[in-house]
Specification:
- Keywords: Signal.
- It is a single chain.
- Strands 1, 2, 3, 4, 5, 6, 7, 8, 9, 10, 11, 12, 13 and 14 form a 14-stranded mixed β-sheet that branches.
- This protein is elongated.
- It is 11% helix and 56% strand.
- The protein has two domains: 153 residues, no CATH class; 61 residues, no CATH class.
- The chain is built from two helices and 14 strands; from the N terminus they run αββββαββββββββββ.
- By secondary structure, it is mostly beta strands.
- α2 links the parallel β4 and β5.
- The N and C termini lie far apart (64 Å).
Length: 254
């Protein structure tokens, strides 16, 4: 009897805590500022600048619908001296797991339009930035005029000058350089870099400066390089763990 009573009290306290947390969040419709805290916006969310804080223990704002950021730090690029702050992506693979578990301070569900969104945020839908953007995770379509970065890309990520994603599942492309830690799908750029990639890699130089650890699929470029190949290389010069050959190279065995 006492045990049942204790369990009932604990459950009551837990439900009460959840209810209080729910009550703290505010719901706004049809227009509100995405810079507000503990707000769920349905409709149009607008504001200036974004939040790059990476150690939040809750999602500060959820934008459901259309989010517009007309002014951001990306405009600093025009000075040719200062650049915008970006998400502090982990440099070491040992830090990736802890980073992936971090709670984004903003979640955008729908369409995000900006001159540049640099925020520790997850986007589920479409995000378009005229200049540059730096986000935690993108699920959908991510387009930027100059540069685009993400920790995890699930979908399509394209930028004019350079784009990077530590983990990419889908398409990542740029006119100049692309950088992927682990990817699967299609990688297109003038200078492509990857540590591990499965799929198709198309560029002028593929892993030339730093040879990729593993590549499975098809590499097409002027120069192709990888330490461990399971597939085919097509280019002027192709190098893998077995041999270096012009025009075509291959390896399908360990």
């Amino acid at each position: 009897m006492k045990t049942n009573l204790c369990v009932a009290v604990i459950l009551l306290l837990c439900f009460s805590a959840v209810a209080q947390e729910t009550e703290k969040r505010k719901f706004r419709f049809p227009v509100w500022l995405y810079t507000a805290d503990k707000v769920d916006i349905y409709g149009l969310s607008v504001g200036v600048g974004s939040d790059l804080y990476q150690n939040s223990d809750y999602v500060g704002v959820r934008s459901n619908g259309i989010r517009i950021e007309p002014v951001s730090e990306s405009l600093l690029i025009a000075t040719l001296i200062f650049g915008p702050d970006t998400v502090d992506y982990p440099l070491n693979a040992s830090e990736h797991d802890a980073f992936s578990k971090k709670i984004p301070n903003e979640i955008i569900n729908g369409l995000n339009l900006s001159c540049g969104t640099n925020a520790f945020a997850n986007v589920n839908g479409i995000t378009i930035s005229a200049i540059s953007q730096s986000l935690k995770d993108t699920n959908g379509i991510s387009l930027a005029g100059l540069g685009s970065g993400s920790f995890r890309n699930n979908g399509i990520q394209i930028a004019g000058a350079g784009t990077s994603s530590l983990y990419s599942m889908g398409i990542i492309a740029s006119c100049l350089n692309t950088d992927v830690y682990k990817g699967c799908g299609l990688q297109i750029g003038g200078f492509n870099k990857s540590v591990e990639f499965n799929g198709v890699q198309i560029g002028i130089f593929n892993n030339v400066m730093t040879p990729g650890e593993k590549f499975s699929g098809l590499q097409i470029g002027v120069f192709n390089n990888t330490k461990k190949l399971r597939g085919i290389q097509l280019g002027l010069l192709n190098k893998n763990e077995k041999r270096t050959l012009p025009l075509i190279n291959w390896n399908f065995r360990d």
